[in-house]
Write a structure and sequence with these properties.
This protein is of the alpha/beta class. Helices cover 47% and strands 12% of the residues. The protein has 13 helices and eight strands. β3 and β4 form a beta hairpin. The longest helix is centred in the last third of the chain and has 31 residues. The protein starts with 9 loop residues before the first strand and ends in an 11-residue tail after the last helix.
């Protein structure tokens, strides 16, 4: 595919869906900004196919559509939280989880703790300097980091590069079974700032028919909604998570949501009622994933407009009349 670019302009490309808005706030005006687009469902084809045998026992189908799911109300773990890349906000999230005492299926980065510790302190200091967090929140973050040291590292399996990014199924059967044996998935995205970038991570719980909580960039819940998916706003306040600039506050909201789920799980009637609602939404999400995956397969077969329907960030200014 070829594009007729204006040779008098300088073009800037970034994967964040809102890069144009971000760039408009700078003093630079001599280039045109566009996005190379976020990860879409077609990045997860192999994993999606690998998951099918594991889901057959719990899904009820009508043709190609899923109409219901049999949710196990007595899963071993309340949540999963996978963190392979050494990001400071992931260290804070894991430290907060450790402090909470919640029973999750979690892993951590494998770099030396001193290295992660130093990067996280630098990150917190920068957030404080930028007034994204307060001095009191800085101290809370440091406390979480200290708690993490007692449990670090948390190793669940020995993944390949593709299984780390959930593009293929791990060869560790026990790991996969335990991943399915979680009530909810806590997704720590690749970015948590104002760059609206979404990786393949968000599609993992959708493929697994699990509800999810996302620690990601600003407006990530709104973006996922715009793709057509349900984001379980009755489990965590989507709008607040989308606008809160404090990483400490957002992690607190996640811990509060998990504590509420834990309390609900102790009441069989309330837990059944909640999971009946979750079942409707995970089935809906699974069907939307399949629908969009099919659309991506056929998009652009007949004209460019079909291609741009799923990748609107590429439409302008890549070609001119």
């Amino acid at each position: 595919m070829h594009y007729n670019l204006d040779s008098t302009k300088t073009y800037y490309c970034n994967s964040s869906a809102n890069i144009t808005d971000i760039q408009s706030k700078t003093a630079y005006t001599n280039f045109i900004t566009f996005t190379s687009d976020n990860y879409l469902e077609d990045t997860m084809i192999d994993l999606h196919e690998d998951m099918q045998p594991l889901l057959e026992q719990v899904l009820f189908k009508d043709g190609d559509n899923i109409i219901d799911i049999d949710i196990n109300l007595s899963k071993q773990f309340l949540f999963s939280c996978l963190n392979n890349a050494p990001k400071p906000y992931r260290a804070l999230l894991l430290g907060a989880i450790a402090e909470s005492g919640l029973d999750g299926f979690c892993n951590s980065p494998r770099v030396p703790f001193d290295q992660l510790y130093g990067k996280t302190i630098s990150y917190l200091s920068q957030e404080l300097t930028n007034r994204k967090i307060t001095k009191a929140e800085f101290k809370i973050g440091m406390g979480w980091l200290d708690r993490l040291e007692n449990t670090y590292p948390m190793i669940l399996d020995n993944p390949s590069e593709d299984s780390i990014h959930m593009k293929e199924l791990s060869s560790d059967d026990d790991f996969i079974q335990k991943l399915f044996d979680c009530d909810i998935s806590v997704v720590s995205e690749s970015i948590v700032d104002n760059n609206l970038f979404v990786s393949e991570k968000i599609y993992k719980p959708i493929i697994m028919c699990q509800p999810f909580i996302v620690l990601g960039p600003s407006k990530v819940y709104n973006y996922i909604n715009e793709l057509g998916y349900k984001t379980f706003d009755y489990i965590i306040d989507n709008k607040q998570m989308d606008v809160d600039s404090s990483i400490i506050n957002r992690i607190k909201q996640i811990i509060d949501a998990l504590n509420t789920l834990q309390s609900t799980k102790m009441d069989p009637i309330a837990w059944k009622t909640l999971n009946d609602r979750i079942a409707i939404d995970v089935v809906y999400n699974y069907n939307i994933f399949n629908e969009r995956l099919h659309g991506l397969h056929t998009a652009g077969h007949y004209n460019l407009e079909g291609f741009f329907k799923y990748r609107p960030g590429l439409k302008l200014p890549l070609y001119r009349n």
